[in-house]
Amino acid sequence: MATTRSRTRKSSISQSSTPLSANSTSTSKAPSVSSSSTSLSSMAEKSSKNGKPMLDTYGNEFEIPDFTIKEIHDAIPKHCFERSTLRSLGYVLRDLVLISTNFSLFKFLIIPALAEQHVATRVAAWGVYALLQSLFGTGVWVLAHECGHGAFSTSKTLNDTVGWVLHSLLLVPFWSWKISHGKHHKATGHLERDMVFVPKSREEYSRRYAGGIGHDIVELTEETPIATLIHLIAQQLLGWPLYLISNVTGHNFHQRQSEGRGVGKMNGFGGNVNHFDPGSPLYEAKDAKWIILSDIGIATTFFILYQAAQAFGALNVFIWYGIPYILVNHWLVAVTFLQHTDPTLPHYHPESWNYVRGAAATIDREFGFIGRHLLHGIIETHVAHHFVSTIPFYNADEATEAIKKVMGKHYRSDTKGGALGFLRALWTSSRWCQFVEPSAGTEGEAKGVVFFRNRNGLGIPPMPLAEKAVSDSE
Questions:
Q1: Which of 52, 138, 346, 424 is most open to solvent, judged by the fewest CB atoms within 10 Å of its CB?
Q2: Whether the Cβ atoms of residue 63 and residue 79 lie closer than 8 Å to each other
Q3: Residue 30: which region, alpha, beta or left (left: phi > 0; alpha: psi -120 to 50)?
Q4: Helix (H, G, I), strand (E, B) or coil at 454
Q5: In which element (H, E) is residue 129 found?
Q6: Backbone phi, psi, residue 61, to 5°
Q7: Is 342 helix (H, G, I), strand (E, B) or coil?
Q8: Could you tell me if 151 and 391 are in contact, meaning their C-beta atoms sit under 8 angstroms apart?
């Protein structure tokens, strides 16, 4: 097996992932280039009913998780579920003070002190301002995210009020997002119901890049690094607004919407699937008032920005708010993408999916001081968050350590390199994770479990056309 794997990997294989942490309970001995791949690998004896083993992109053998949600809940100390309204409000106050202080320092002290310096120096200073403001703003985004899950407070009214205000200030439609995000949590890793970063099938990828129906990815040459970079930049800058406007990266099975409002609607511009229309197939009729309230929040923030532009100039408002806003969107997309896209991650067809399997198909990463303190641990404790989303972020580290004992080899983390390792993972996942297909030769339930493959010659290659034809016919 090791010989086979070595042949399928290029010498330039990414090393951005880490070995298992000391806290992990995994006993896996499978060779691995990443903590995430190791923690879902197993050399245990395979069940004959599944035929050949399931292999992730790195070539590590995968076993379907076999624990229960009750075991997860029982393992978490009871006090981890406790929510402190006062503590949560304290974090809101802290982040708003950071945002206000950062603005005041640059606007009234730092930039005036650089008045005689070259314009490039002032531009660089405003760049530092925007970066810091975006990190503080993303922290506010995460606190609103806590509100959406009910992890902020025991009061639903307070959760909704604080979440609506904070998200509206960041041009996020709070309830619209809350409803669709809740569906994402209920269907994580489900190829036909998940709401975000649903991977393309081999057929979908082929239609887009190999010239349409009748062509296959085997006809494509390796994607050039510049093409990957362009795609990545577009994803980071445009991914969030496109998701809100046209449901990009979400599932496209809207015809199944229970009230029938999804018939004839599909993702993309003009497809009538978005987060602002009460008639969108993402929602039901009972959600209409919440979608409208979300829109009112967005409209209020736009009005404030318009008034600010009239008073201080549109360029100033763009520097003070617009650029940090774009960077907040970048951090949001980066975090979400890397929580659900990795060469070790499985996805499931409906017949093989359940809640526990989907929640386990996530990965914790590490972003150093920024992730732990400014982004409230959303990067480092995402696996636990998917199992129990009402646990407040300040208890999530302890909950994570507790669930590792239950998950064992199924817990994954990629922590090597800290913040730089996190950023490198954007490139790694973009190169390695292009479409999904089942492992060659699998049978039974295992055929419904798919893994990332790519056209770049990295890791396990896509199935040969002959094998794929047999698999499809079966």
A1: 52
A2: no
A3: beta
A4: coil
A5: helix 119-149
A6: -75, 135
A7: coil
A8: yes
Q: Which amino acid is at 145?
A: H
pLDDT of residue 210: 81
How much is the pTM? Answer: 0.88
Do the Cβ atoms of 366 and 379 come closer than 8 Å?
yes
CA gap 130, 89 in Å, rounded: 25
Q: For residues 8 and 57, what is the distance between their CA atoms, to the nearest angstrom?
A: 10
**Which tokens is 217 given?**
């990815």
On the 0-12 / 13-18 / 19+ scale of CB atoms within 10 A, 421 is: buried
DSSP 8-state class, residue 346: E
Contact between 338 and 425 (Cβ < 8 Å): yes
d(CA 224, CA 327): 26
- Please name the helix (run of DSSP H) or strand (run of DSSP E) that holds residue 458, with its range, or none: none
Strands (E) across 152-262 are located at: none
**Whole-number pLDDT of residue 219:** 86
Q: What does the pLDDT average to over 130-150?
A: 98
Burial of 423 (0-12, 13-18, 19+ CB in 10 A): middle
Secondary element (H or E) of residue 194: none
Q: Is there a contact between 30 and 19 (Cβ–Cβ < 8 Å)?
A: no
Cβ distance 244 to 276 under 8 Å?
yes
Give the pLDDT band (50/70/90) at residue 465.
confident
- What's the one-letter identity of residue 223? E
| Least confident stretch, 20-29, 35-44, 114-123, 351-360 | 20-29
CA 434, CA 455: separation in Å to the nearest integer? 8
Q: How confident is the model over 77-111, as pLDDT tens digits?
A: 999 999 999 999 999 999 999 999 999 999 999 99
Query: Under the phi-then-psi rule, with left for phi > 0, alpha for psi from -120 to 50, and beta for the rest, what region is 163?
Result: alpha
N-to-C CA span, the chain: 26
Contact 427, 232 (CB under 8 A): yes
| Residues 365/379, Cβ–Cβ less than 8 Å | yes
Give exposure, 192-229, as e/b (b: 16+ Cβ within 10 Å): ebbbbbbbbbbbebbbebbeeeeebbeebeebeeeeee
Q: Tokens in use for 231?
A: 């795609």
